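U., I forgot to send this yesterday:
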Amino acid sequence: MSKIAALMQNIASMNNLAYVQGMAPTTIPSVHVFRSIETVPRTPVVYEPGIVIIGQGRKIGYWGDQIIHYDADNYLVPTIPLALECETYASEDEPLLGLFINIDMNSLYALVNAMADHASQAQYDMNDLTSGIGAAAMDDPMKDAVMRLLTCLKSPLDAQVLGPSMVREILYRVLLGERGNSLFALVQHLGQFSRIAKTLNRIHRDYASPVTIEELAHEAGMSVSSFHRAFKQVTVDSPLQYLKKTRLSKAKSMIVHEGVKANIAAYRVGYESAAQFSREFKRLYGLPPSQSRNIGYAQLI
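Result:
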């Protein structure tokens, strides 16, 4: 077991994940630790913006035609809320161990502004940016930063006093890495990527409300055809497909984590017909809403 994996196992044990699996908050509010002992087949998930760092085990994301590997050598950066399919390789002898770090927009703004005079042209050039998710190599500076964060998490006092600066350094390392340009785009409001990111935030905020493509396109300042094309380029889904996946994911979370009945969850996320909700839920996840707890990643990233 590597030093990073050993520290992650220690943090997992401190957060009641020594012999079980799941995700738990740490003493730093933006940082969660997760542990899994099961290999999970390809399953639909929705990632929130953040940084996924794996210490042991491996995961594969399927996003349109892309296959994204993230493991001890590669961290994942979903810069916007995205729906994809994911599979995990883990066992009791070698559990999956990792961290999920939420991206704080205030910290991101401050860092980008501080780096503005030194950023390379490539970090501002968004012409080649086509997606809101991807993996980046765990170089030595990033590994060192992760080690310091994990060591800090062992002490509640260190976590309270030093934790925010450790998280800030990791975000800084991400900005310098292969996925940094997409974060620069969010802050600098560059191009269609930033416009679609705002649309996705609106969908996640108002997913239960009626919405039309025309309305979303107007808010993005684009024609319907341009909006549809740009949306699919960034998310690989059409706007309606994305909204449906978001609603179903929110409903699954309500059923699993809040104990909400399936028909109530259906109405809460914007469905007028519980029967239609059940059909579309089973079509996406392969199981009916009543078996939500049996769906992979019910408790994990």
